[in-house]
Write a structure and sequence with these properties.
The protein is of the alpha+beta class and about 625 residues long. About 40% of the residues lie in helices and about 25% in strands. The protein is flat and about 210 Å long.
């Protein structure tokens, strides 16, 4: 009895030690804890956090970590990671079912280093990593204690577990989809230890690539909208349109629903069925309208029945309208439009009204001229809408083209009925107002010009600007009359050609006469300019000669004055100058000396010459003294 009591006391001491050890393990900041409300049930703390996120409001922005449980057991060392996994797995183990001192007959096979060893004690699973050592099952004499080996499992196995304990190894780039307490949970890449008796995981369908554009796991939804795409979703009865974004859209809501495209799903393009092209000009989803009007057009919308024209946005963003009473009615072009009338609708109506109508009656509008000749007309009308609001208010979207066609043909019918067949056939030619006055400038005056004028005025009242109106085809329906008119047209064309030739010849002769007169005028002007230039040159020369003479006279006068002043100041210079003058005067003279003056000449020739030059100083000779 004493030995049994000692054994019982030892067991109680061991049990107390294991409980203290468990409390220490539970106090560790790891990713596991014990649910005290249910012994043997274990769950991960982040799971509770993920479940609480389901109560978040619709407009709150959830992040990936709000719905994905990250692994806290990823370490660089494989042995350390293995130890952490075993420690987390065995957090509730009190008495180990393995021993490394194998008893005879209970030793197990050597466990490879890449494997774990699993066993249980009364369905309390335990995992060990012998790291190549031999081990054995523990011995317990109590028949109520069942210790069994569950075999080995590869450390890299995707998933394994027994009796409410599980290990999940999520590959890199994947999420693991599981269920805990009937709630969906997502696990991030890496190893996870789950202590939960309600945990369920399907290896075949449980892993999903993180690159998937749409990941759905019960109430958890991760949506990645690629560039150039958009997605339509419902949150209960509320529609939403998600544009492309680098970050995923995340929801944990049982009312979330993604709208898929039936055409893509039918063709097998599952990924393409999730999204719509962001380039689509109009997308409607519930009460949301997404509109992209292009340049040169406007969007037609009605807000509670009131016309609301939407222009292209300047920032390049789509127009978004979220109202159940604001509807979209299409686009209308504000750029230049060119149409042939009769339109296809009018042609179809003619066939419907008269199945026996001829091709000309189907393809042309029939009118009657003043002289009762039936002609078919095809018009070309070019226009643009300058005020869409007025045009749509007065005519409506579908009434603009029929209105233009009807009033164009009405004006054309009036013009054709007011003219003869010949005038109508030559309506595309300009009429010369007065052939007798060839210098008069011809003014175009055609039927289509008058029709264009009236039509432009009528369309202006409806916010439409007429750019062009032409008669594309004009045909006489009576073939016999058409042949006669064709002959008349040839004759008229000949007369017109002859008239144009005469006018051209007149223009040529007039031009030649003007050219000759201009040439003569130019020659006369050139001669006059030459004579004027010559007279001007002579006048300038005379002025220059007179100026030179005046300058020369002034210089001589000043020189004489200067010489007089010099002679006055220096009398000997005067005498010398006078001697030079006298010598120059006597240079070619012949002097006759009488015998009476010979003595004077020989005694003083200079005095004799001086006396001869100044005769008034000499005494008058006697009348008897003659040479």
């Amino acid at each position: 009895m004493s030995s049994r009591r000692e054994t019982k006391n030892e067991k109680e001491k061991d049990t107390e030690k294991h409980r203290e050890k468990d409390r220490d393990r539970i106090s560790m900041k790891d990713s596991i804890t014990i649910d005290e409300d249910d012994i043997g049930d274990f769950e991960i703390l982040p799971e509770k956090k993920a479940q609480s996120n389901a109560k978040k409001v619709l407009n709150s922005a959830m992040k990936i970590e709000d719905v994905v449980i990250a692994s806290s057991m990823i370490v660089h060392s494989a042995d350390e990671q293995s130890d952490r996994i075993c420690e987390a797995f065995n957090v509730d183990v009190k008495d180990s079912c393995f021993t490394y001192n194998p008893a005879p007959g209970r030793a197990l096979h050597r466990v490879p280093r890449e494997c774990y060893l699993l066993g249980h004690r009364n369905q309390v699973t335990e995992m060990a990593d012998p790291k190549g050592r031999r081990c054995a099952l523990s011995f317990n004499a109590d028949p109520t204690v069942i210790i069994r080996s569950l075999g080995t499992v590869d450390k890299n196995s995707s998933y394994f577990g027994h009796f409410g304990k599980h290990v999940l190894n999520v590959p890199a780039g994947y999420f693991g989809k599981a269920v805990s307490k009937n709630n969906p949970v997502l696990f991030g890449e890496g190893p996870h230890v789950i202590l939960d008796s309600t945990f369920r995981f399907d290896v075949k369908t449980g892993f999903v690539s993180q690159l998937e554009p749409y990941i759905s796991h019960s109430t958890i939804h991760i949506l990645r909208v690629p560039s150039g795409k958009l997605a339509k979703i419902w949150i209960g009865s509320v529609p939403r349109i998600f544009e492309s974004s680098p970050e995923p859209y995340i929801f944990n809501d049982p009312q979330f629903r993604l709208v898929t495209r039936d055409d893509k799903a039918a063709s097998g393009d599952k990924a393409g069925s999730y999204f719509y092209s962001a380039l689509e000009r109009y997308i409607e989803h519930g009460s949301i309208k997404r509109i992209i009007p292009h340049t040169g057009e406007v969007a037609i919308t009605y807000n509670n029945g009131i016309l609301d024209i939407r222009l292209p946005t300047k920032d390049g963003r789509p127009i978004t309208i979220d109202s159940s009473t604001h509807n979209f009615d299409g686009f209308i072009s504000t750029s230049l439009q060119t149409h042939l009338f009769p339109s296809e609708e009018t042609k179809a109506q003619v066939i419907k009204d008269n199945a026996r109508a001829s091709p000309d009656e189907r393809n042309m509008k029939i009118f009657q001229t003043r002289d009762s000749l039936r002609v078919g007309v095809v018009l070309v009308v070019a226009f643009k809408i300058t005020d869409p609001e007025i045009a749509l208010t007065k005519l409506g979207k579908e009434g603009i083209l029929p209105h233009i066609e009807n009033i164009a043909f009405a004006d054309m019918g009036k013009a054709i009925q007011a003219n003869s067949a010949q005038e109508v056939l030559f309506s595309s030619q300009s009429k010369i107002s007065s052939p007798s006055d060839p210098l008069h400038d011809p003014t175009p005056l055609t039927i289509q010009d008058s029709v264009r004028k009236h039509l432009a005025r009528d369309l202006e009242e409806y916010g439409i600007e007429l750019s062009r109106l032409n008669i594309e085809t004009l045909k006489v329906l009576d073939e016999e009359i058409a042949k006669k008119l064709s002959g008349q047209s040839v004759t008229s064309a000949e007369f017109t050609t002859k008239q144009a030739t005469l006018v051209k010849e007149y223009d040529i002769k007039t031009t030649e006469a003007r050219l000759k007169a201009d040439t003569e005028n130019i020659a006369v002007q050139q001669r006059n300019q030459a004579m004027l230039a010559e007279a001007q040159a002579k006048l300038e020369k005379a002025k220059r000669e007179a100026d030179a003479l005046l300058i020369s006279s002034e210089a001589a006068r000043k020189a004489a004055e200067f010489q007089g002043e010099l002679f006055t100041k220096f009398p000997m210079l005067y005498e010398l100058e006078m001697a030079k003058i006298k010598a120059a005067a006597l240079k070619n003279c012949t002097i006759y000396i009488t015998p009476q003056d010979m003595g004077n000449f020989l005694s003083s020739p200079l005095a004799m010459f001086t006396a001869m030059n100044n005769p008034h100083q000499q005494q008058k000779p006697d009348a008897n003294n003659k040479f």
